[in-house]
Design goal:
The complex is a heterodimer of chains A (112) and B (114). Chain A is mainly beta and 112 residues long. Chain A is 0% helix and 54% strand. Chain A has no helices and eleven strands. In chain A, strands 2, 4, 5, 6, 9, 10 and 11 form a seven-stranded mixed beta sheet that branches. Chain B is globular. In chain B, the strands form two sheets. In chain B, strands 1-9-8-3-4 form a five-stranded mixed beta sheet, with no helix packed on it. The chains are: A mainly beta (112), B mainly beta (114). At the A-B interface, β4, β5, β9 and β10 of A face β3 and β4 of B.
């Protein structure tokens, strides 16, 4: 079966712009989580959606937001980009935490 | 959030077994122990998880101490493709603050020598 698909793979944006990243989960998975990975902070949890509802949120500013559609696909948005937002953004889908999570390959965002 | 402690790095020879330790002394009764690994330029990959009993799958084995305060990921025959960062994570969905969330530490960087 197809894995978790993230688009685009690479993105270059300018400070102050906004960006939208997309994640298509494994078919049948209703939970989608997002993570930010940087060399300094490692992997940090952003938020999790289940059946179009945000169930949990990490410690990130309000510039980071997300949503989930009825087909479980999810998007995350970062507004007013800062240089420090340069990172690998990963999404993961799951059929339940006991089943483990499947990660996508990520979107590499560079803010210049 | 319950934390895990892992060595920063380990080395292994190809085709030899590798035992990656993880301490989680503050684990709660409902925490699952998950292991993920991340190869360069890829997202983390699920390896194995368990609650109380030892677990085996095609990738690895997970040995959980009787008191659950530690666990060991066992790769039976390391290959060069097993060189990665290995993360030991506790996962618990009791309470809204834990839902859908994995807390990654720094992990153990495994080097495999030919």
């Amino acid at each position: 079966k197809a894995g978790v698909t993230q688009t685009p793979r690479y993105l270059i944006k300018t400070r102050g712009q906004q960006v939208t990243l997309s994640c298509s989960p494994i078919s049948g998975h209703r939970s989608v989580s997002w993570y930010q990975q940087t060399p300094g902070q490692g992997l940090q949890f952003l938020f999790e959606y289940f059946s179009e509802t945000q169930r949990n949120k990490g410690n990130f500013p309000g510039r980071f937001s997300g949503r989930q559609f009825s087909n479980s696909r999810s998007e995350m948005n970062v507004s007013t980009l800062e240089l420090g937002d340069s990172a690998l953004y990963l999404c993961a889908s799951s059929s339940g935490y006991r089943a483990g999570y499947t990660f996508g390959s990520g979107t590499r965002l560079t803010v210049v | 959030d319950a934390k895990t402690t892992q060595p920063n790095s380990m080395e292994s020879n190809e085709e030899e077994p590798v035992h990656l330790p993880c301490n989680h002394s503050t684990i709660s009764g409902t925490d699952y122990i998950h292991w993920y690994r991340q190869l360069p330029s890829q997202g983390p990959e699920y390896v194995i998880h368990g609650l109380t009993s030892n677990v085996n799958n095609r990738m690895a084995s997970l040995a959980i101490a009787e008191d659950r305060k530690s666990s060991t990921l066992i790769l039976h025959r390391a290959t060069l493709r097993d060189a990665a960062v290995y993360y030991c994570i506790l996962s618990n969905e009791g309470g809204s603050s834990n839902t859908g969330k994995l807390i990654f530490g720094q992990g153990t960087t495994l080097q495999v020598k030919p």
